[in-house]
UniProtKB/TrEMBL annotation:
This is Glycine amidinotransferase. Gene3D superfamilies: L-arginine/glycine Amidinotransferase, Chain A (3.75.10.10). Pathway: Amine and polyamine biosynthesis; creatine biosynthesis; creatine from L-arginine and glycine: step 1/2. Its EC number is 2.1.4.1. Homodimer. Its main location: mitochondrion. It catalyses: L-arginine + glycine = guanidinoacetate + L-ornithine. It is found in: Mitochondrion inner membrane. InterPro entries: AmidinoTrfase. Belongs to the amidinotransferase family. Keywords: Membrane, Mitochondrion, Mitochondrion inner membrane, Transferase. The keyword Iron does not apply. GO terms for molecular function: glycine amidinotransferase activity.
């Protein structure tokens, strides 16, 4: 990634305490100063966020039933969300607990039925990629 970005960008490499990583998106940037961190797969560099004054949110336990088929993934697809902007998040319509967490942060959950697709091994964040971003270059770590 560093090769493809202008020299003004600093890339921070993070790793996770997970011996068998399948989905690498276990920690999400929700917005400036706010990160969502999977309690079962913690980020080894989470202190970097805390030292910079970020709020680290632990999502509530997933509500996925035990008998729901999950192919090469886990119930933590519940936190596999897509931030549309700083005030709106696309979230599984069945995950009421995480919806309430986002509401408590002033972020509006856009509820979408996706559980049927989780069986294929992914969620909103896995299935999307930025094509373009707008805004200015900012530093969030000092």
């Amino acid at each position: 990634m560093c090769r493809h970005l202008a020299p003004d960008y600093k890339v921070h490499i993070i790793s996770f305490k997970n011996p068998n990583p399948m989905h690498i998106d276990g920690t999400f940037i929700i917005g400036p100063g706010l990160v969502l961190s999977n309690p079962d797969r913690p980020c080894r560099q989470i202190d970097m966020f805390m030292k910079a004054g970020w709020t680290v949110m632990k999502p509530p336990a997933p509500l996925v039933p035990d008998d729901h088929p999950l192919w090469m993934s886990s119930k933590w697809l519940s936190m596999n969300v897509l931030m549309l902007d700083e005030k709106r998040v696309m979230v599984d319509a069945n995950e009421f607990s995480i919806q309430k967490m986002f509401e408590s942060l002033g972020i509006k959950p856009i509820k979408v039925s996706i559980r049927h697709a989780n069986s294929l091994g992914g969620g909103f964040h896995c299935w999307t990629t930025d094509v373009r971003r707008r805004g200015t270059l900012q530093s969030y770590f000092y």
